Fold each of these.
Amino acid sequence: MEQQQLPQYIPVLMLLGVAVSFAFGTLVFSVIAGNFAAKRGIRTKTKDIPYECGMLPVGEANSRLSVKFYLVAMLFILFDIEVIFMFPWAVVYREMLANPATRDMIFGSMVSFLAILLVGYIYAVKKGAFNWKH
């Protein structure tokens, strides 16, 4: 039995070898191309400034953002994931309507999921997570 399973891993090992050789090959190629293309040691002030779409950079590169920015970003991710979970449910819901036993179960599970997220949304509104003024 073990004799028959070993050949099944050969394509996986080949893919692993190709992936590792590609990774190291691109690193080696970038070093070689960089050595041929650029003159080492010649650095100017213009080359050392950060590139910002052709415009001269204004202000400091490491500006601090408010915690509210990160909080709103996390809430966006949370509600974006909610939509991602609702799409497969909507696709399967039509098929599940044919069976009365699963119809109530799938509808109830989505209503409970939305209720939990609604409680989280109300909590965020009450805490002022969406208020940028303070």
Amino acid sequence: MSRKYIPYLVTLVLIAVLVGVFAHKGPQTGPQGNAPQGNAPVQDKTFDMESFFLVFDTNHDGGVLPAEFEAVYATWEQGARFSMGAGQEALSAAKAFQYFDQDRNGRIDGYDPRMKDAWDKAWEVFTRDCAKRGLAPKEWRGLWLGLNTAQLGTMNHEIGARARGELPFGGAFFDAKYFEGNRYVKVTRKDGTFVQGFATEKEGKLWVVTTEQSLVVVKLADATVEEKPDSPQAEYLKAVRMTPFEDVAGNLKLARRCMELGLAREAGMMFARVLVFERENSEALKALRLKLDGVNFVPAGD
């Protein structure tokens, strides 16, 4: 049997990554009565930190949670588990997790000082794997994502919109200042034509973000304004402000609600968000009339 021990100092961790030190010992009894058969030697070795995320990050999101760690650790024989030094007793899953989770945030990732080198090496492996599959490697708030062209486009649009302070509406992104007050109106001009959308008022003019992906400016003196505080669009805007880009369940819920409200474009944007993080999500694929061809999206057809 071979127990993996974790050194006390960060410097030793880095040395272990680089050179893989092995410490051999003679016959001895393992912890909790797990003795090797006959006179077979117990071999202690420093853990290959380079492999940490490849071993424990089973859902490939760039981090390891306690349940994820414990599920893998439970499959290891007692004599192969972590200890704090050669020949010492095996650590429980909770104590081993705590060792690696140095910042005590309940998640082991590249922000933990002990794990940075292992994180960087695992990221190199991840990027090579993405390249082989024709995917672009991206990291989003600790999540590691291999994205096809469509997914990458959606993510880049979302990232750009966030940087500019924009919100999604009607299949496009608009400056959040045009949604202040969550005021949805119908504006009728003197000639009888009208527009509907979110309105902000300034210097006798109404700036309206319409459902047709446009920004219309109307003079208040030349129009009649009808307030629609209970509109489906107002409900959507309130919800989308509270739904993070990476919240798959939240975006699915909002997409379904948009479909109920007849907001097809808004629903489409939420389903597209879902596919960034779950490429094989059947509900989102069906809603957007897509299917997978390998790792890429293609039209599903009728």
Amino acid sequence: MTSYKTEPPVLLAVDCIIFGFDGEGLKILLIKRGFEPERHKWSLMGGFVQPTESPEDSAARILKKLTGLTDVYMEQIAVFGKPDRDTEQRVVSVVYFALIDINKYEHVISHDYRAEWFPLKEVPQLIFDHNEMVEVAKKKLKYKAALYPIVFELLPEKFTIPQIALLYESVYDIDLDRRNFSRKLLSSGLIIKLKEKDTENSKKGAFYFKINTEVYKEKIMSFLRFLPGWPID
């Protein structure tokens, strides 16, 4: 250990980008920072990795502290480590994003951090390089959504076609031909129709669906190719 004494000290942190879908659009959970530097400014939820933790353990702890949730989809997406990214000390941050259904978990969101959901198109100026982190996360979400069924982590277990159309519009920032989208989605085999209907948000009652996990990886690319502007940058 004595060979490390001459090395400069560097703090290791994690920052969590928490995406949620409320049935109308994609949102991001932000907090008001409670300490200096940049106190009272909007920030991602983060913290320092403790001696007994891995970065993954630290991110899971921070996510649970803010939302009360465990076992949610979470993925490491980048490392930010420019020497001057923090004004106080050299800090390297491992960045994760998490996906949750806002309507299902809204009641457990912690108010200790003045947490607030923002539409993804209305993200305010954040501290340090957190806006850059959000942009990286948005690109990563687009990419992953084209290959894996992670978008459905943002939806309830049963959902309507209008809900999934809104979600895809939010993730890819596009306008869909809803009738064509519905036809393509129904013919793709990606979703399974249920007997239940959503009678609260639809006068006629829109049928609920669930994802067909057995064919998702096989069918998703052929379905996404019809979306406007595909391939997505």
Amino acid sequence: MMKKIITWLLSLWIAFVFIQSLLFKFTDSPETQHIFGTIGAWMSTNFLAPLSEFFTAYGGYTIGSFELIASVLLIIPGTTRSLGALLAIGLMTGAIFFHLFTPLGVNVQGDGGVLFYMACSVWLSGWIVFYLQQSTSKRRSYF
């Protein structure tokens, strides 16, 4: 029972973080333009250059769409929750990488690292949800 409650709470946390950011990503807010523009400019200086223009222009919409998909998968009980957790882990691995290894940095526009730490909390929550889902589903018998 406790695993179920923890799984639900962490799934709801991930979905909350993703869904509340959609307004920024889907409206091409100045914050979104700064984040994806900074990353796109960095991409243009290395082997990712072919993706830089697309990422600058459409990165917010693309990432936001995948975050919405992950949120829906996490809210649906059952096997889709593991897929949502894996998608959240993948998305936040990218976010953490870009915060740490590009000019974006941890402190984005003076936010004190809030975006970075939220990405870390979602990443960790995703791993916990995935682990709990896997340990629960191994005990189920569908036959």
